[in-house]
């Protein structure tokens, strides 16, 4: 039997073991700064543990195995879960504002809900380099969160709020961002191949050098009805992209590769299209006033639009 308060031997795990009067092994969860005891769980592991509705704000759970754990509606405000294993964990309704989740494994973690009031709160959280492959983040709130370098492959982020968040260099092929709020987010260098960003709000977002192409021949990313007004897409790749009725008003499209993209009904009014490549793009239904297509490449302008400024 382990002695009271012995720290787990595995690197990075900071919950501790103790025994009660009956000799049962208890896992103690302590505050990351004060060391005060927050909760005790009768188990030799937190993997698969029932941690619903627990007060774990500021908890020290670095590197802990929380795979399959149920943390529904738990208070994890400011908790440190850096490097923790949260594979298949349930975090619906969890309060993770300002939590530290850098490098954590959240593969297939459930944080989202059809009802925004039930989704996890992740605003201000650090999710840099976290693995969120296949995670459910529907309608979750992650305003100003740091997801730099995170893996969002196949993640479901429909309706999620990432306003002002840092998603620079995220890897997110086949992710769903339908109706997501990505206003003023940093998506520089993001891998968004085969994503669905239908009706998403990317106003004033930075997508410098982002990749919105496809991982396979004939595939394409969908950004129909999305709002890119005032966004920075310099050097972005949008080959074969479906951008029907998409708003690029006042966007910086310098050097964007639109080769064979579908832009039916798109609005490019006052967009900067300097050196943008429109090879194979039908521009008949595109709103292009004040966009100065004379600086673009391979743009075939319909004769009735050639006098537009």
Describe the structure.
The protein is low in regular secondary structure and 309 residues long. 0% of the residues lie in helices and 6% in strands. The chain contains no helices and four strands. The termini are far apart.
Q: What's the arrangement of secondary structure elements?
A:
Layout: E1 6-7, E2 16-19, E3 25-30, E4 37-42
Antiparallel strand pairs: 1-2, 2-3, 3-4
Overview features:
four-stranded antiparallel beta sheet, disordered N terminus, little secondary structure, about 300 residues
Quick structural overview:
This protein is low in regular secondary structure and 309 residues long. The protein has strands at residues 6-7, 16-19, 25-30, 37-42.
**Major β-sheet annotation:** 4 strands, antiparallel
Portion of residues within helices: under 10%
Measured by DSSP, the beta-strand proportion falls in 5-15%
Strand arrangement across the biggest beta sheet:
1-2-3-4
Helix count from the secondary structure assignment: 0
